[in-house]
Amino acid sequence: MALALLATAHCGPEKENPPGGTGGAVCTSSDKVLRLGKLVHPEDGTVLDKAIVVIHEDRITYVGTDEKQIPCGASVIDWTAYTGLPGLVDAHVHFTYQTDQAPGTLPWTRAPWLMNNNAYKLLDLARGAALATLKTGVTTAIDKGGADYILNPLRAEILSGKTPGPRMYNSIGGISNHKHPGAFTTDTLKGWVQLQVLRGADLVKVWADQCSDQTLDCVPMFTFDELKLLVDTSHQEGLPIAIHAYHQDTASLAIMAGPDSIEHPEGLDAVDCGTMIDKGTIYVPTIDHNRYYKDNLVFFGYAPELSAKFDAYIQKNLESATLAHLMGVKLAMGSDAVFTGFGQNTQELAWFVKAGMTPLEALRAATLHGAESIGAEHEVGKVAVGYYADIIAVEGDPLTDINVVLKGVRKVMMGGRVAEF
């Protein structure tokens, strides 16, 4: 990443060099000023013309139009040809699900091989995924299940500016019972959550069902009481929790347990939606990731007849998202990006519009709701004072055409740094 510094603000001859002064004296400042043709606020849809955003280090200190608020000597970044938006939040990715596509291998078998045998190669592949994600305008990514020995170094590299990528919030490994079938003691379940805490997770991820990628059938892995204990323990430990559940039978149990977010499910009904609203659970439908699988059957080694099953699942998933939106459930944009899916992170927004959202509502899902799903709504998802300086520039009007966000991202800033692609 490199910072694009296009101009320097000058101040007046006064000895104190007040902000916004005029004249010939030159002063210096480490602050930056971003000028935008327009700035859209997804929370209310307001548009600020000729917006000025002042940035100190990685945070925003002013948003408005008052030239006097420009610090004397601040570096100026000129994006006046574009419309600004908060950096987008991808609420569901897997950066460590990677393959080097070695001959004779398939992605789902190659990924664990790399994790166990070539961690440096895996880290390099994850770097590429992070870059591809950032290029889509995603400046915050929530990794919902990955290896800590890749995710932690990758996050450190990104925050230092060494590696271009989005701000990362990570679940570490996650909780499943694929290797431990049967009932679990209270101490065992609490211990699994506490292990996530000690490994430095930002959130807890639970796989509530196990699904076959050959048949798309799923089997529940936990009871309601077990899910409720995992949720309660996570919250007691101060961590948000996301629960993966593909089909309604498991999803209904998970939703009643009250997680911060529910991932993937189709077949939801009005009762499920009402429960999500009551408990404040955010729905991350990840509709587009099944389109990705359908479009890449050969890559994954899937049978051709799975195409029709993916179509059926996508339709049910879309119907659930449509109902949830109609009833007032908060939805968040999650790509569930894996392998070659990075760089397609924002395609979910097109499905949201198909589900009945306006472009503004889709933007909220891609900013505010994603941030809220992990308790980061006071740090990311807005261009506002005190927030991280995560801002993107698009060409066109994102309030009338969602394709402006899908195809029109022209500039990306993460933490006050402008990414150079």
Automatic annotation (TrEMBL):
**Residue ranges annotated for the Amidohydrolase-related domain, each copy included:** 85-418
Query: Which stretch is the leader sequence?
Result: none
SUPFAM superfamilies, alphabetically? Composite domain of metallo-dependent hydrolases (SSF51338), Metallo-dependent hydrolases (SSF51556)
* Bilayer-crossing regions: none
Query: What's this protein's name?
Result: Amidohydrolase family protein
Taxonomic source organism: Polyangium mundeleinium
